[in-house]
Amino acid sequence: MASVKNARVLVVDDETDVLFALKMLLKSEVKQVVTEKNPDNLPGLLEREKFDAIFLDMNFKSALNTGNEGIFWLRQILEKDREATVILITAYGDVELAVRSLKEGAADFIVKPWHNDKLLETLHYALEARKPKKAGAANTSPKKNTSTTILGESDAIKEVLYKIEKIAPTEANVLILGENGTGKELVARALHEKSFRANKPFVSVDMGALTDSLFESELFGSKKGAFTDAREDRAGRFEAANGGTLFLDEIGNITPPMQAKLLTVLQNRQVTPLGSNTPVPVDIRLISATNEPIYELAARNQFRKDLIYRINTVEITLPPLRQRTGDVELLARHFAALYAQKNHKPVPEFAEATMQKLKQHSWPGNVRELQHAVERAIILAESNTLQPQDFSFSAMELGPPAATTAYASASEKPVPLIELERETIVRTLEKNKGNISRTAKELGLTRTALYRRLNKHDI
């Protein structure tokens, strides 16, 4: 890290142990390390000396009545030098505050307890991002233009887009929460494409599709002869993502033994392929996603709390489409243009009644359901103006049945929702002659989600 070697670094923290640990870590990596226990001395210190980077604690044991001392002192530093590179030091519980501090001008943040390698990487990237570009020099800043488009004008989606912009250039692990079909993988790709790792691999893994027997070989790799079908050495997903981003989708579905193995790898930042005793170091930025209530699972001891702490330095919750009513028209027109071009048709108009119908629908399958509904309408519509009858929703897409539709008369028993779901899946499977991919697409589900439902209903 040549750019770090000549750096002068200031560390401001009221804990002597933190100051000592950082000085020991950095003294062989940078030109000079200055430590300061009392933030009140910052103004005078900055008047006398110039620092390339400043590590600043978020909380001090002082009587300063600011709500948060870290933000107060961050502002003081930036008043002295708008170009100062400030890296915040925060505890796990203050991560959301640290993310908001990025808006105030902080370059990045690290979370206590930190990994030394990750701290040095954070320092390196922060210094590179603030370095003025020379003519003809390679651009090492994150990509600002991304091929992944997340559409929306609602306040709910604007909050998500704001978080992506602020979190992407950092090395923070991210946990994305949201219902099926809300676009969790889109957010993961956007985070990667706007990061310093944008030119490195983005590797996605569907964790819900991995059995216990496949887990280690798929993620950690295997050596020739490790098991019956292992005819050659094979790199796992961690190694494939080395230098880039690893996206673990549906992480809430992994079993306790898988959780333990994953935790060990994330702690040590190295994998040991099946059939080998030699660990392989890996450098990845981890993004995870789940539609499962992961904190409820943790409360029931079905998901490890220490693993949650590892995977969600920062959390992004995606709103369901029913909370983004104002975005339905924008998304519908986008998908209409997309599928019209794909199917060699003119871009259709939407009748006013059609758009009203789409806005009133609850969209239990979220954006993915809307996408498939528009695609079906484009293919089957009789005219270039989409009418309400061009959009029909299955029992599953309509969500829980209302009392008036759940049973034919007051004297009849209601049909349980679970039976309606099973009947809908069976009917759609029969329609598609058992084709899982087409059935999943029509139902607005992923193949993995459909497999889980087939297993649940013993189909």
UniProtKB/TrEMBL annotation:
Keywords per UniProt: ATP-binding, DNA-binding, Nucleotide-binding, Phosphoprotein, Transcription, Transcription regulation
Positions of the Sigma-54 factor interaction domain: 150-379
GO terms, biological process: phosphorelay signal transduction system; regulation of DNA-templated transcription
SMART domains to which the protein is assigned, alphabetical: AAA, REC
GO terms, molecular function: ATP binding; sequence-specific DNA binding
Stretches assigned to the Response regulatory domain: 8-127
Keyword Transit peptide found: no
Entry-annotated residues carrying 4-aspartylphosphate: D57
Superkingdom classification of source: Bacteria
Gene3D superfamilies on file: 1.10.8.60, 3.40.50.2300, Homeodomain-like, P-loop containing nucleotide triphosphate hydrolases
The protein's name in its UniProt record: DNA-binding transcriptional response regulator, NtrC family, contains REC, AAA-type ATPase, and a Fis-type DNA-binding domains
Classification of source organism: Bacteria, Pseudomonadati, Bacteroidota, Cytophagia, Cytophagales
